[in-house]
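dude i think i finally got it to work??
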Amino acid sequence: MTLNDHDSLAWAGRFKSKDKQALADAIDFYGPDVHRLIKRILAGCGSAEDAEECVSDVFLAAWNHIGRYDPARASFRTWIFLLAKYKALDLRRKLQPELGRTVDETALNMQSGSNTEQEILQREAAAEMLRHIGQLSEPDRSLFLRRYYLYESLDELAAAFGFSKKAVESRLYRCRTMLKQALHRTGEDGRGELGSC
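look at this
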C-alpha cells in the first residue's frame, strides 16, 4: 500500500490496527524529515547516535500513543513532527541541563500531582495555538511552521519562498503579532479569530 502525506486517516488506522509494516513505512516516509528536524534542534549537542535514538523514540511514541492522535486537530505529519520536536527538546535539555532545569528537578516535578494539571493546560494551549496557526493564510502559515516548528533558518526560508530575508522577517513578525492578539482575544471571549498577515 502506498501512502502519501495526505493520508492521515490511513496512517492512523494502520497504526491503530498495529500493522507492523505501517511503522516501517512511516519511518521510511517521514524518517528523513524527522531526522533533519531533530538534528536542527540538537545542533551542537549530542552525537549522531543520540539523534538516531531520538528518531526511534519518536516513532515508538507514535506507535504506542496513536490513541492520542486527533485528525481533527492536525495531520499525521504534523503530529509526528510535534512528537519529534518535543522528544528532541527533552533530549537537548537532558544533554545540556545547564540550559534549563536539571534532570533531577524534572524527575521531582514529574512525581508531583500538580504536574498532571500543568501538562493538560500545556496541551490545551498547544492545541489552541495550532488552531490559530491553521487560520493563517499561505504562505504565512508555511513560513511560520517551517521557522518555529521545523527550525529552518531565515536564509533557507527566503530561498524556498523567493522572498528577501527582510521580507521573511517582516511576515513572521506580523504573524507573531496576530497570533498574540488572537490568543489574547481567546482569553477574553473564547474565540480569537485571525485576520490575514
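DSSP finds nine helices and no strands in the chain.
im so relieved honestly
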